[in-house]
Amino acid sequence: MSAYCVGKYLWPELVGKDGKYAVATIDRENPSVKAMIVLEGSVVTQDFRCDRFSSSWFYVLYVFLGKRSSWAELFGKQGQVAKVTIKKENPYLDAIIVEEGFVVPLDYHEDRVWIWVNKRGIVIQVPLTG
């Protein structure tokens, strides 16, 4: 299961600890992981991925690989260049090129990046996760 995991990816010792303490511990022990508190009762997927972990309210969290969520420097670049740049930085992100005017789902996914391009393939919006 941990074949693609980089560094520590599980913190069983944090179960039952204060969420803020858990986030600080994870940030210190693996800076490539972004930890986030998830309220008890929130809907989270149950499939295993080393880039996320969930538990209850203010007790350990939800985790995503990579702290970066936007790429302003890619605005005006070729869409394919933007996609390769994002995937090289974080291969766990799903970087998707979308031509302006196309309809995309409105749901939010932390591991997805929409790369909006014009008809010439030039990035016309800052790529963001979601």
From TrEMBL:
Keyword Phosphoprotein listed: no
Family matches, as Gene3D superfamilies: Trypsin Inhibitor V, subunit A (3.30.10.10)
Organism: Ziziphus jujuba var. spinosa
Keywords: Protease inhibitor, Serine protease inhibitor
UniProt keyword Transmembrane present: no
Source organism superkingdom: Eukaryota
Protein name: Glu S.griseus protease inhibitor-like
InterPro entries linked to this entry: Prot_inh_pot1, Prot_inh_pot1_sf
Family, as annotated: Belongs to the protease inhibitor I13 (potato type I serine protease inhibitor) family.
Any one GO BP annotation for this protein: response to wounding
GO molecular function: serine-type endopeptidase inhibitor activity
Family annotation (SUPFAM superfamilies): CI-2 family of serine protease inhibitors
